């Protein structure tokens, strides 16, 4: 009869630097380090990607830049030089878009409500313009069949909240997840931690 895989404790670090520091401390203290069950949150996220069902093709940096340019051009037409975002240069509006996409991707399950709330404001209000900018981003990305950070984060959460047997083997077979050297989690990471520990 084949033996079941040994279930081990998987230790997750927030950054590569925290992981290297831990390895260095352990090596100095014990003389050696078994790093086979040590990872970072970014590696854990990449580990999950092949097991997710992402709607659309993931974008590389060049595709994101091209999409960003297209979105800025379309959004500028919506703003017609009015309001806070209407007065920004194309580069500045692109930077705002990047920050907005990153921030909203960190709250993937709440993003639709946040966008609805933003769009409920007056058309010249900054929040309405931000909601419009993000809506244009999502519309153009979907038309091009692309998946952005929000789509990827939603897919990862669906995976982790789903059946454990569909998880990557390294996660499925571990008996305990331990997070070390963590000062705080962004909301997406916190949602992942809750899903992983249920």
Short description:
With 198 residues, the chain is mainly alpha-helical. The chain contains 10 helices and 5 strands.
What does this structure look like?
With 198 residues, this protein is mainly alpha-helical. It is 59% helix and 8% strand. It contains ten helices and five strands. The strands form two sheets. Strands 2-1-5 form a three-stranded parallel β-sheet. Strand 1 (9-13), helix 1 (16-30) and strand 2 form a beta-alpha-beta unit. The chain is elongated and about 65 Å long.
* Total E-strand runs: 5
Number of helices: 10
Task: List unreliable stretches of 5+ residues.
Answer: none
Distance between the termini: 30 Å
Shape: elongated
- Note the run of SSEs as H and E: EHEHEHHHHHEHHEH
Structural class: mainly alpha
**Strand order across the largest sheet:** 2-1-5
Secondary structure elements and their pairing?
Elements: E1 9-13, H1 16-30, E2 38-40, H2 41-48, E3 57-58, H3 61-79, H4 83-86, H5 90-105, H6 111-119, H7 126-143, E4 146-147, H8 149-161, H9 169-172, E5 176-179, H10 187-196
Parallel strand pairs: 1-2, 1-5, 3-4
Helix pairs in contact: 3-5, 3-7, 5-8, 6-7, 8-10
Task: List its traits.
two-stranded parallel sheet, 59% helix
């Amino acid at each position: 009869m084949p033996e079941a895989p040994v279930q081990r404790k998987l230790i997750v670090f927030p950054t590569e630097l925290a992981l290297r520091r831990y390895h260095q401390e352990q090596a100095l203290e014990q003389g050696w380090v078994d790093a086979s069950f040590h990872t970072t949150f970014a590696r854990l996220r990449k580990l999950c990607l092949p097991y997710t069902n992402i709607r659309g093709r993931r974008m590389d940096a060049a595709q994101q830049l091209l999409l960003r340019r297209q979105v800025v051009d379309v959004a500028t037409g919506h703003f017609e030089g009015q309001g806070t975002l209407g007065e920004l240069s194309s580069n500045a509006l692109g930077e705002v878009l990047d920050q907005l996409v990153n921030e909203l991707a960190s709250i993937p399950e709440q993003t639709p409500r946040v966008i609805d709330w933003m769009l409920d404001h007056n058309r010249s209000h900054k929040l309405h313009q931000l909601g419009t900018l993000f809506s244009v981003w999502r519309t153009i990305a979907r038309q091009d069949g692309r998946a952005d950070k929000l789509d990827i984060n939603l897919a990862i959460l669906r995976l982790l909240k789903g059946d454990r047997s569909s998880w990557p083997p390294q996660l499925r077979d571990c008996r305990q997840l331990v997070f070390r050297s963590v000062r705080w989690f962004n909301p997406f990471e916190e949602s992942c931690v809750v899903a992983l520990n249920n």
